[in-house]
User: What shape does this take?
Amino acid sequence: MNAPYSPSSFTARLGRQIARFAARRDLPIHPDHAIVSFSFDDFPKTAATMGAPALEKRGWRGTYYASAGLAGTCNHHGPQFDAGDIVDLSARGHEIGCHTFEHMDCAQAGVDEIATSLERNAAALQAMGLSDALSSFAFPYGETSLEAKRALAHRFASMRGVRAEINRGSGDLNLLRAVPIDGGEAGIARAVEAAESLVQAPGWLIYYAHDIQDDPTEWGCTPGQFERVCEAVAASGARVMPVRDALKALQETPA
Ligand SMILES: [Zn+2]
Assistant: This one.
């Protein structure tokens, strides 16, 4: 018998390395651009109730990568979004992006399985009242494989991972880098620093967050911490827009 799959096995680690560097879709990022995109994964209801108003009061909008299989459920992040959140966020100008339906790990799943999950997700979000097409995707856990990157490249304008860096010089549209807004005070300090660094070294900074509540999970933050990141972004002078719109702005720039 073959050994059971283990994400820490040498083969799995090697697979992740290959997936990171191969099957790229390069997006040149002109050095004049400082753009920030706020994104939320899965997503917990507090990402909508606390996150959206914090963005909107500054005239900003975000991207919500939804896993429809989580809708209406409650997990460690708290209650998850429901149909009302999808319609409401979308009507207020936020982007609804795609995650897998059941939050599957795309490094483990086969491409057919992933395709089925994505179709199911799109159909479920449509049934909830979403009329916009899903053009932005985020890999759950930031995990992917060479095969998954190749198979999904034609389906989405962009795909996001969780490697905590700013997209500078060029970005991989099949695995964009993104800085978390989590990890307690140390993590928030890194998120703030990332925004501050845009002044000297512009690029496309994509944030991702989960729950925003007074007693957050280690993958979440407090309303005050989220506010501090927003303040740092405002002070940086960067333009803020959803992932879909940021991509358009970057693609329209003559190099
Ligand atoms: Zn997720």
Summary: The first strand starts at residue 26 and ends at 29. Residues 26-252 form a domain with the TIM Barrel fold (CATH 3.20.20.370). The CA atoms of residues 26 and 172 lie 5 Å apart. The pocket of zinc ion is lined by residues 41-42, 99, 103, 140 (CB under 6 Å).
